[in-house]
Every structure is written in C-alpha cells, then in structure tokens.
Amino acid sequence: QAALDLCSGLDAKDRIDYIQKGAGHYGVFSGSKWRKEIQPRLAAFILERFDPAEERDALKNHGLKVVSAA
Question: How does DSSP classify residue 24?
C-alpha cells in the first residue's frame, strides 16, 4: 500500500491493492498461496498491460533488441 504512494506516475487503472489472506511477508512470494492465488493474478495483470510493439520500441530506444528464447 505504501508502495502505491511512491509510484505517483502510475495511472489509476494500474494501481491495484491486493492482500492475500493467510500469507505473511515471506509467503506472498513462495508456497501454495503464491502458486495458487498471487502469481496467476500478477501474470494476468502484466499480460493485460503488455504491448509487444511498445516493448520493442522501448528496447530499441535504449539500444537493445528483442531476442526470442530457444
């Protein structure tokens, strides 16, 4: 919640406050709560906002390029 205050450049649609019941500080990023509840929400959040063309342009502007994984 405090991190959202620090990220003043984020649009309102990109500000999500989610608290997972039963997960402590460590459990947020490990274990069954992470696998079953948190990671799928995070992945969906990222995929909903990911624009491949925008990503390529951003990388190109920094002298980088997209390389496909084998």
Answer: -
